[in-house]
Amino acid sequence: MKTKRYATLAIALVLAAALAGLLYAALKPPALPLGARMPAIAFASSDGADTLRPAPAQNTLVILFSLRCSHCLYELDLFEKHIDQLAGARIYLATTDRDFTPGVDNLRWPALSRAENFIWARLEEKQYARHFGAAISPCFFIFDHEGVLREKIRGEIKLEALLARIELASASVIKNEILQNQ
């Protein structure tokens, strides 16, 4: 009899703990919700230390990639091939791979490495997780020229769809500015 009672009590405690964990996860706000400002995160680049910052006159795209992710490498190869279509945005190519060395490991993509609007960044994993959430790659964050997050895309995306979403982020900013000036 006592054994049944203890077993029932143990099951109830486990279920209560699981429910509390689920409630915490459900009520916890996302690390970087839409409308949030771009976090000023320090990172290592091929030019030394730098900080994420919005481009004053264009959208900024932060792309998380991993050298161990085949989808990421595919996306980077696409960017290399169609670099001219991405000239209208500042793009941070960010990784949390500890063994990635900007200026060395990005030589596979010479056009991206030479382009003024592409910045290779190695971020600390804990810092990335604190500001952007789970490190799922590839992952795309589109910020407007004021550094406000307009779009989050997790997983692979076709280049045309990405370009359309970057354009849409620009259009929503222009619409907001027109409405404010009326």
What is the secondary structure topology, with strand pairs?
Elements: H1 2-27, E1 42-45, E2 48-51, E3 59-65, H2 70-81, E4 89-95, H3 110-114, E5 118-122, H4 125-132, E6 139-143, E7 149-154, H5 159-180
CA radius of gyration is 21 Å
Overall average pLDDT: 83
- Shape from CA axes? elongated
Helix amount, in percent? 40-55%
- Main beta sheet, described? 5 strands, mixed
By DSSP, the count of extended strands is 7
Note poorly predicted spans.
none
Q: Structural class per helix/strand content?
A: alpha/beta
Q: N-to-C SSE series? A: HEEEHEHEHEEH
**Gap between N and C termini, in Å?**
76 Å
Beta-strand percentage range: 15-25%
- Strand line-up across the major sheet: 5-4-3-6-7
Number of helical stretches of at least 4 residues: 5
General description of the model:
The chain is of the alpha/beta class and 182 residues long. Helix content is 40%, strand content 21%. The chain is built from 5 helices and 7 strands. The chain has a 5-stranded mixed β-sheet with strand order 5-4-3-6-7. A two-stranded antiparallel sheet has the order 1-2. Strand 1 and strand 2 form a beta hairpin. The longest helix has 26 residues. The radius of gyration is 21 Å and the shape is elongated. The N and C termini lie far apart (76 Å). The model has no long low-confidence stretch (mean pLDDT 83).
